[in-house]
Amino acid sequence: MGCEQALLASQSPGSVIPLLQEAQENEGFVSEEAIESVARRTGMPCSTVYGVATFYSQFRLKRPGRHTIRVCEGTACHVLGVGAVLERLTEELGIPVGGTTADGLFSIESVRCLGCCSLAPALMIDDETYGRVTPDSVVEILESYRKESS
Q1: Is residue 60 in a domain?
Q2: Do 93 and 54 form a contact (C-beta atoms < 8 A)?
Q3: CB neighbourhood size of 145 (10 A)
Q4: Sign of CA dihedral 10, 14, 15, 19
Q5: Which of 53, 61, 133, 69 is nearest to 101 (CA)?
Q6: Alpha-carbon dihedral angle through residues 87, 31, 56, 84, given to the nearest 10 degrees
Q7: Which of 19, 30, 43, 60 is deepest in the core (most CB within 10 A)?
Q8: pLDDT, tens digit (0-9, with 9 covering 90-100), for 76-113
């Protein structure tokens, strides 16, 4: 694709999602500045770009923590007690699902399935999977990340 074609492609409404994905990949989230930039590049109003960014769950509008905790809420994890694990996790960190700790160390996300049902209840921190997690083991796991970050 030549430069002119690339410029035209970046200005089409269909390029909103790829441009938002690129911004998130570069910054870790979609900032207000990124929304404004995408709006300028596509010729769309900021409100429309914001609407796309908030419609798709893949986009984060807040800077994530240094460590992202993904808690599986799939059927196996649900049946085997992930609710108590999640409650302890949010209590321990003092943030709700979707939040980031004040020190920027942790973010919590809820996911439908991590694909490791035999380890239920399970969670992931960054790329590390933890299985058969209990409310008490959550505290130990978090502490290991806190020590590592000190």
Answers
A1: no
A2: no
A3: 17
A4: positive
A5: 69
A6: 0
A7: 30
A8: 999 999 999 999 999 999 999 999 999 999 999 999 99
Phi and psi based region of residue 17 (left: phi greater than 0; alpha: psi -120 to 50; beta: remaining):
alpha
Tell me phi and psi for residue 31, to 5 degrees: -80, 165
d(CA 133, CA 85) in angstroms, rounded, equals 7
Q: pLDDT by residue (tens digit) across 112-121?
A: 999 999 999 9
| Cβ neighbourhood burial of 56 (10 Å; 0-12, 13-18, 19+) | exposed
pTM for this entry: 0.76
> Which residues make beta-bridge pairs with 124?
70, 129
Q: Same structural domain for residues 32 and 104?
A: no
> Is 101 in contact with 93 (CB distance < 8 Å)?
yes
Rg (CA), the chain: 19
> Residue 37 corresponds to which tokens in the numbers above?
């930039």
Residue range(s) defining the domain that contains residue 41:
3-55
In contact, 113 and 74? CB cutoff 8 Å = yes
